[in-house]
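Model it.
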Amino acid sequence: MLSWAVCRKGGPIRQAEEKEDIMNKKHILNAVRELSKKFPQEKERIRTGVKQAAKLWDKRDGSPKDFENFCSGNFFAGDELQALFERFESKFEQIQNSRKRFWNATWRT
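Modeled.
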């Protein structure tokens, strides 16, 4: 899993339409190749994640080499992936519970 957050003005769809495409296949393949050496059992997830991240990457995020480093440093597999999933699951449960408490307090008569 590549962790990625988009918090810019206009949202991700508008950005994708406006951004200048600085990524080329060479940099995408380099990132896939390096990650596949570390995690040979995860090749399909790697290809998918790197391609998805490349679509969102623009020059404000850094150079193509920065992209390769980002992918290398933010791919999770095995126990790390499970721990990340559990952390996100816990945070989403907290958010959902807060929303329920707010909803109940707001609409209670």
